[in-house]
Amino acid sequence: QQQVKQSPQSLIVQKGGISIINCAYENTAFDYFPWYQQFPGKGPALLIAIRPDVSEKKEGRFTISFNKSAKQFSLHIMDSQPGDSATYFCAASEVGSGTYKYIFGTGTRLKVLA
Amino acid sequence: DTEVTQTPKHLVMGMTNKKSLKCEQHMGHRAMYWYKQKAKKPPELMFVYSYEKLSINESVPSRFSPECPNSSLLNLHLHALQPEDSALYLCASSHPLSGIGNEQFFGPGTRLTVL
Fold it and tell me: How far apart, in whole angstroms, are the C-alpha atoms of residue B113 and residue B81?
């Protein structure tokens, strides 16, 4: 029940295209869903995050779509650029419990072709 | 200052060595974390400190010993490690009372190689 399932494992997109990464969870107590971007040899960087009280959040070219009833959320990268090539991790957390723990998805390696 | 710093960037040690990893943040965060990350895997939580007290230990072997000397510093003491402990060690911090959520900010990591 603590798992977050992430797909696809890898993704190749043409420059200018839309990259879509999906995550699904079981634990309905999760109430915070961040996405992280990680370049090789670097630490993960917070991209965008959402709480379950909204269905969509947009920041620049990055959008999170959230479907509470389906227990799914996804990251959309519009106008994908070669510089977006990185590994993306979704995560889920129970902020209300005060445990501070993230449950990470398994990651998606995105490659954007020039 | 909005970053988490970690030193050293790279560390090579033998199985009998004792070394320490250091993490520092000046964002006023009162929760700090150690993660271990193997290649092509997500970060794996090791320890959480909240207000300088250890609140989570994810059953980490005793050869890893965390320490939180003050609200800005987090150390990870290493002793008698095994080659399978080679990984990227990440530090993170967060404000436990954030109004948005538990945004964790990660440092760049220490690449550890155990020979």
Answer: 10
Please tell me the distance from the alpha carbon of residue A23 to that of residue A72, in angstroms, as a whole number: 6
Q: Which residue in A has a C-alpha nearest to residue B47's C-alpha?
A: A101
Q: Of B56, B90, B106, which has the smallest distance from its Cβ to A101's Cβ?
A: B56
**Rounded CA gap, A4 and A59, in Å?**
23
Helices (H) and strands (E) in chain B, counts: 0, 11
Chain B interface, best mutation among A51, A102, A106, by max B CB count within 10 A: A102
A20 to each of A7, A87, A89, B24, B114, how far by Cα in Å? Answer: 9, 13, 12, 35, 37
The pLDDT tens digits of the residues spanning A12-70 come to 999 999 999 999 999 998 989 999 999 998 999 999 999 989 999 999 999 999 999 99
Mutate to test the interface with B, among A10, A89, A100 (most CBs of B within 10 A): A100
Tokens in use for B12?
């090579």
Q: Dig out the tokens for A72 from the structure.
A: 């799914």
| Buried/exposed B19-50: b ≥16 CB within 10 Å, e otherwise | bebbbbbeeebebbbbbbbeeeebbebbbbbb
